[in-house]
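Write out the bound-state structure for FE2/S2 (inorganic) cluster.
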Amino acid sequence: MSAAAIPVEQIKTITMSIYRYDPTVDEKPYMQDLVVEIPTDKDIMVLDALHLAKQQEPSLSYRRSCREGVCGSDGMNINGKNGLACVTPLSEVLKRNKITLRPMPGLPVVRDLIVDMKQFFDQLEKVKPYLITKSDSPDIERKQTPEDREELDGLYECILCGCCSTSCPSFWWNPDKFLGPAALLQSWRFIADTRDEATEERLDDLEDAFSLYRCHGIMNCVSVCPKGLNPTEAISNIRNKLLTREKN
Amino acid sequence: MLVNEVINAKDLPVMEFDGIIVGGGGAGMRASLQLAESGLNTAVISKVFPTRSHTVSAQGGITCAIQSDDPDDDWRWHMFDTVKGSDYIGDQEAIEYMCSEGPKAVFELEHMGLPFSRTEEGRIYQRPFGGQSKDYGKGGQATRTCAAADRTGHSLLHTLYQANLKAGTNFLNEWFAVDLVLNTDDAVVGVIAFKIETGEIYYIKSKATVLATGGAGRIYSSTTNALINSGDGIGMALRAGMPVQDIEMWQFHPTGIHGAGTLVTEGCRGEGGYLLNKDGERFMERYAPNAKDLASRDVVARSMALEILEGRGCGPNADHIFLRLDHLGPEVVHKRLPGITELSKTFAGVDPAVQPIPVVPTCHYMMGGIPTNINGQVISVENGEDKIVDGLFAAGEVACVSVHGGNRLGGNSLLDLVVFGRAAGLYIEESMKQGVEMKNASVDDIDKALERLNKLNASTQGEQVSILKEKMQQNMQNNFGVFRRGDLMEKGIEELSHTRDEVDNMFLQDKSATFNTARIEALEMQNLFEVAEATAITANERKESRGAHARDDHPERDDDNWLKHSIYYAETKEVSKRDVNYRPKTVQAFQPMVRSY
Ligand SMILES: Cc1cc2nc3c(=O)[nH]c(=O)nc-3n(C[C@H](O)[C@H](O)[C@H](O)COP(=O)(O)OP(=O)(O)OC[C@H]3O[C@@H](n4cnc5c(N)ncnc54)[C@H](O)[C@@H]3O)c2cc1C
Ligand code: SF4
Ligand code: SF4
Ligand code: FES
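---
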C-alpha cells in the first residue's frame, strides 16, 4: 500500500518512534521519530504502518513474512509490550497519535528491530523438539484418539516468535541456562503426545536447578503470547509430572 | 568478503556440499530430510528461518487417498480428479506417481509427529474439498483431505523442521541465494549466496542444487501469498537460461478476505459453508448444479467474479461475496476452523460463527514453474526435445512436474511438496551412491552469476523498488486477472517492457552489509519481474480458455492446438509448446472430456 494512492481527506499523520541501530554505521542505538501518513477510512496493522515508514526510510529494517500472524517473524516490542506487528491493529496501540517500537528485549540487536534469535533457538533444540519413538512404525498412521489428540491443542500452535521468552525476566538473567517459556512449552508438547516414547529422558533432562525451575510464575509469557498459548501452565504440568515421579 | 563490496569471483570464498537445497519450505525440507538421513553432506539455504516459510500458512489440508474416511477410497479416483481438475494438461505419469505414492508420504509425516486431527477410530481426520469425487466422478463427493484442524501447513512445516533437527540437517538460515552458477558445459554447479545478518558472501558449490523456493504470488497486488513469495527460483532459472512451463496458469482462490487478501480455506466450504450474493442466493447452485460450492477453484472463482461484474456483489460497493458459516454452529466453527475464526476477526472484524465473511477471488497459487521430471530433474527443451539439465533439480511450487496443469485442486500442493521433495531426495541419494563428481566453475562463470549483485551495489541513481513493485502489481492485477483479454494483455505487456529497464537499473540507496532488507527487496523485485513478464507474454500467447486461464476473446478450450504445455525462455521471450504426458504406467490414460461440475 502506498500513501500516494489514498485521497488527501482520508489521511492522517502519526509519529512512529522507532529504535534504530546499524552497528556498521551507528556508534550507538537511537530513537528516530518518523512522521507517517496513514489512511483514516480503515484500520491498518502496525506492520502496514512500518511498510509506509520504510517507503520514507528504506534503511529501516525488520523481519516479516506471512503478514497474518502465523509465521512468527515480526515479534517486536510495541509500546512496551511484545507482540506481532502484523496482527496488532494500529488503533489499539496509538497513544496520542504516537507509537513506540523497539526490538524484543533481552536478545542482542542485529539491526533496528531485528534481534539475534540464536539463544532462543539453542534453548529450543535442548528440549529435543521432535517426536521420539522406539517401537516400529505401523504401515499406516499411528492411532491416536481425538481426546488424546486434544491434549496437544494449545501447544502445537506455537509459531516460535519469541515474544514470550523475551518478556520473561528469568530468561533475561539466565538465557543460557533457563530454557524459557517457548522451549518448555515445546517440551510439554512432546511429553503430552501419547505417541512419544521418551518421557523419562525428557524429564531427566529438566531436573537440574535451572532448566525448568527458574520459572517464577510471573506469567509475562502468557500475557504476551499472540497465539493465546499458556507456557506457565505447561511448565506447571511438567513440574507436577516430575513431582509424581519422585513420589513413586 | 562482504556483499556490499565490489565482488570478484577470484576472491570469493567457497563452501562445498554434495547437495544444496535452496528453500526451507515443505518441499525443501522434505528433500533435505531424505539427504540428511542418507548421510550426505547437504545444506538447506533459506532466506527466512525455515518455519517462517510460506508453507506455514497452508490451512485446509493435504489431499490423499489414505482410506480413513472411506475405506474404499482409491488413489486412482484421486488421479482422475486431479487430471480433470488440471483441465487435461497435467502430466499423467506424474499425477499417477503423486496419487499412488501419496499415502506413504502422508503416513511418514504422521510417524514424524504431525499432529493430525483424528476420527473416532483414531485415524487421520479427512474433510471434503473442491473437485473431489468417488468412482471416477460417478460416485458423488469424496472426503479426501487430511487435516490438522485448519493449521495443516503449520503442522506440516514444523514437523518437517523437527524431523530435520533430529536428522542433523545443516541449515544456513537467513541466507539469501542470488543466482545459479552455470559452467560452460551448461551444468549447474551451485549458487551465489550471502548471509543476511553479516553480509558475508560465498560461492556455494555442490554436485546437486535443488530449487525449492516456492511461489511468486506477489506479482499481483491482491494475493494470499506471504510477502516473501517473490519467485526467486524462477528468476534464477530464467536468468540461467532455463525455461518455465505453463507460467500463465495462476490460481485465483475463491475466498481471500476482502481488502486484506488473507485466505480462508476451502475447508470452510468442505465443512458445509457456502457462498451468497447480495440477494442471499446460493448462486453456485446455478453454475455447478452437482458440486455447487465445492466445484473446482477456477470454476468457483469465475462464478464469483461474474456475480460481482453483473452487479450482485455484496457491501456498499457491491464488490465482494459472502461466505456463510454460522449455520454450522459455534462448535464446528471453533473446533474445526479455529485459525479461520482468528483471521476473520483480525482481518474482517467478523466472528464467522455469527456473521458471514466478506470474500473475493484472490491470487493464490502458481501452477506453472520450472519443468521437471518425476525425479525433480530440471528439463530444458531444445528443438522440441526434452533435455535434462545437469546438476539442477526443482520441487514444490517453484517446479512444474506437472501435477496441477491448468488448475490445482485444493490440498494437492502439500502433497506435491512431500511426494516430489522426497522423490528428488531419493534420486539424488541414489545417484550420489553411484558416484557423481564435483564439477568446477571458472572465474568467468562465477563472475557472471555475480553481475546482478554488483550492478545493484554500484547503483547511484534510478527508480525506487517500492514504486516499481506497485506499478507491476497493478498492471498484473488489471490485465492478467481472473478474466483476460488480448487487447488488455497487449497493453500490459507493453507497460512491462517500459519498466524492464528501470528494474534492471534500479537504485539501492542503503548499501549496508548488515541485515539489509532493502537489498533483499531489490533482488526480489527483479525476480518478481521475471515471473510477471513470463506470465504476461505466455498468457497472451495461449489463445484459448483452459483451467485458470479464462479469455473473453477465446472463451473455448482448444484441444486441437493447445492440449499442450507452454514453454517460455527469457532470452528470446518466445513461447513454444511441449507435449503433455498421457502415459501413466499402471492405469489407462484419462482422455480429455468436457469439464463440468
Ligand atoms: C494462504 C495459503 C493457504 C494454502 N493452503 C493450502 C492447503 O491447505 N493445502 C495445500 O495443499 N496447499 C495450500 N496452499 C499452497 C501451499 O501452501 C504452497 O504451494 C506450498 O506451501 C509451497 O511450498 P514450497 O515448499 O514450494 O515453498 P515455500 O513454503 O514457499 O518455501 C520457500 C522456501 O524458499 C526459501 N527461499 C525462497 N527464495 C530464496 C532465496 N532467494 N534464497 C534463499 N531461500 C529462498 C524461503 O525462505 C522458503 O524457505 C496454500 C497457500 C496459501 C497462500
Ligand atoms: S511464568 Fe515463568 S516462563 Fe513465564 S514469564 Fe514468568 S518466569 Fe518466565
Ligand atoms: S509460546 Fe506464544 S509467544 Fe511463545 S514463541 Fe510460541 S507463539 Fe510465540
Ligand atoms: S509476519 Fe508472520 S507473524 Fe507477522
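---
Residues 231-247 of chain A form the longest helix (17 residues).
Chain A touches chain B through 58 residues (CB under 8 Å).
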